[in-house]
Amino acid sequence: MNNLEYHKAKIEAIKIHNPTVKSFFIRYDVDMPYQSGQFVIIDFGQLPHQFSTRSYSIADVHTGSLIELCVVLKLGGAATPILFDQNIGEELTISNPQGRFILPETIEDKIYGFICTGTGVAPFRAMIKDLLLIKKCTSPVYLYFGCRTEADILYRDEFESLSRQFPNFKYIPVLSRQNWEGATGYVHEHYKNVFEQKPNALIYLCGWTEMIKQTRDNLKGYGYSRTEIKVEFYD
Q1: In the beta sheet, which residues pair with residue 71?
Q2: Claim: this prediction has a pTM higher than 0.85
Q3: Which domain holds residue 175?
């Protein structure tokens, strides 16, 4: 993990994805190098909670001093309602990027799997763009994205565009509470087709705790080891 430092940074733009999810584009006053998949920590000062800080994954491979955070509003939460009340131009106390939930230094000839729910897609957006656009990965890349309804599918146009541009990238959004032309139910019944026979793979999981626990158990049942499964909880 990087040495932890806090900086003053300003909200440069805000994008509303749906009533409970926003992207915050935050500008540091210096260039801030980071690896796709990392997170930052925002210090909110005084909160009605034991801790004054919260962690948020970086959602893009911006260069320079700008980062994007994709955040879901936690009703009754101590921190996200404060963040959602922030306006463009306001200042945050925010750390430099942290974490080891990142891509390997060397991209090998294996399947790269990404399984997520909700805003757990945020670090995967950065990692998949890094793999395809920067690292020029030609190995199979799968994204299984569990959502409740179509309105909850984040970055849909972008992922669909990448899947058209890169035939090795398979994008599978899965809806649990809406019938539509795409995949339905839960992600487990869909990634099974690819991973059940244990092809050589590195698999990243991010999202709701229960989804991660069940997915990790399933993957271990297929024969994958702890080193082949990378996990990031966000709830």
Answers
A1: 22
A2: yes
A3: 111-233
Give bridge partners of residue 206 from the DSSP assignment: 116, 232
pLDDT of residue 63: 75
State pLDDT tens for residues 97-155: 999 999 999 999 999 999 999 999 999 999 999 999 999 999 999 999 999 999 999 99
- How far, in Å, CA of 164 to CA of 171, rounded? 10
Domain stops at, among 62, 95, 128 = 95
**pLDDT one-digit tens code per residue, 206-218:** 999 999 999 999 9
Distance CA 134, CA 162 (A): 13
Q: What amino acid is encoded at 92 in this protein?
A: L
Strands (E), 120-213: 141-147, 169-175, 183-184, 201-207
Q: How many C-beta atoms lie closer than 10 Å to residue 184's C-beta?
A: 14
Start-to-end CA span in the chain (Å): 21
Looking at the structure, do residues 123 and 52 belong to the same domain, yes or no? no
